[in-house]
């Protein structure tokens, strides 16, 4: 079987040793989304085929990888194509009509995988990295080539929101050594986010009103929590949720609402603002009593739920508070002090 490698790969890529040309891309419609499976070597053909698929897919899509490497330049370009498309990524291989089995994503594959806006990892699947170096004889230009490739990889990882600690692991690998990332490293380097972008919290102001805002985007949509000081030392809690095309349906089917704290749903029986469409968001507001204030302050995650006909079904969001507990508690305490 012939071997396919670009000139760039021959000159600068480590441990990719011109893999046999057995790459393949397949597509299926399953689990209410488009699922794209990449196997074998990642080449320019892989990149071009995925680019063509992105132009025809409508709705959510996931790219699954089961490959031990390929061409570095094509892998980086493939990751950028995936990111521009908004597709998610995962590691696994297709089984049956809708199943997914664990897979391997090694070497250049991890760069393409990092392109997913939401990055999942099937239980039992592997992410493996190694040091990139030049195959064959060394030469006077090796240092220049190494610097160029280091800049390209670190720049790409930064662009994709991956912690550069991953690059440090890569360069520490011995020649020919593949390092399998641990679950702790995967979380610490933000390789897999399992459908959740990092949260952001801050105190902002507009039109003379100061408010605390926390927001986090997930595979379900973008959720925002706004807290402002209300009369009598109270706090007004506003929930904004952008579920895209589902917004109108959520409003139409809404029969009740809950404050979400961690895995709990605490009923909100009286709203100061019933759910309405406000721009791109569904907006609802209420004044939490002291019991709910306690729950908000003590929870690690806080959010809101819009329930349908059955209380067990809902649409909504959570925002991670971890690392921002003091900001949230201090703002609530400030509001309570203003009313005294």
Automatic annotation (TrEMBL):
Keywords associated with the record: Signal
Signal peptide coordinates: 1-23
Keyword Signal: yes
Domain of life, per lineage: Bacteria
InterPro entries on file: ClpP/crotonase-like_dom_sf (IPR029045)
Gene3D superfamilies assigned to the protein according to its UniProt record, in alphabetical order: 2-enoyl-CoA Hydratase, Chain A, domain 1
Name the record gives this protein: Periplasmic protein
Biological classification of the source: Bacteria, Pseudomonadati, Pseudomonadota, Gammaproteobacteria, Pseudomonadales
């Amino acid at each position: 079987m012939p071997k396919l490698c670009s000139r760039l790969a021959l000159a600068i890529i480590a441990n990719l040793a011109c893999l046999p040309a057995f790459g393949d891309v397949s597509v299926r419609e399953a689990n209410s989304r488009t699922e794209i499976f990449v196997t074998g070597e990642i080449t320019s053909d892989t990149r071009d085929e995925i680019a063509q698929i992105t132009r025809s897919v409508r709705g959510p899509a996931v790219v699954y990888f089961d490959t031990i490497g390929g061409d570095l330049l094509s892998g980086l370009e493939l990751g950028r194509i995936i990111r521009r498309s908004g597709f998610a990524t995962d590691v696994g291989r297709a089984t049956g009509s809708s199943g997914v089995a664990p897979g391997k994503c090694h070497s250049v594959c991890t760069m393409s995988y990092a392109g997913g806006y939401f990055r999942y990892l099937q239980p039992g699947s592997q992410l493996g990295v190694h040091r990139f170096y030049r195959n064959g004889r060394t030469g006077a230009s090796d240092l220049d080539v190494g610097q160029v490739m280091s800049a390209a990889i670190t720049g790409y990882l930064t662009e994709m929101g991956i912690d550069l600690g991953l690059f440090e692991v890569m360069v520490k690998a011995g020649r020919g050594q593949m390092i399998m990332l641990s679950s702790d490293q995967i979380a610490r380097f933000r390789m897999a986010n399992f459908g959740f972008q990092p949260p952001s919290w801050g105190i902002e102001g507009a039109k003379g009103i100061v408010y605390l805002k926390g927001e986090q985007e997930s595979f379900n949509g973008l959720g925002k929590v706004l807290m402002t000081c209300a009369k009598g030392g109270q706090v007004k809690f506003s929930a904004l949720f952008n579920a895209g095309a589902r917004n109108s349906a959520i409003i139409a089917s809404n029969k009740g609402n809950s404050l979400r704290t961690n895995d709990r749903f605490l009923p909100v029986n009286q709203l100061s603002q019933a759910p309405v469409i406000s721009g791109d968001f569904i907006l609802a507001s209420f004044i939490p009593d002291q019991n709910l204030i306690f729950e908000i302050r003590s929870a690690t995650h806080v959010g809101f739920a819009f329930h349908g006909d059955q209380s067990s079904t809902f649409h909504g969001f959570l925002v991670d508070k971890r690392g921002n507990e003091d900001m949230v508690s201090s703002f609530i305490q400030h509001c309570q002090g203003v009313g005294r």
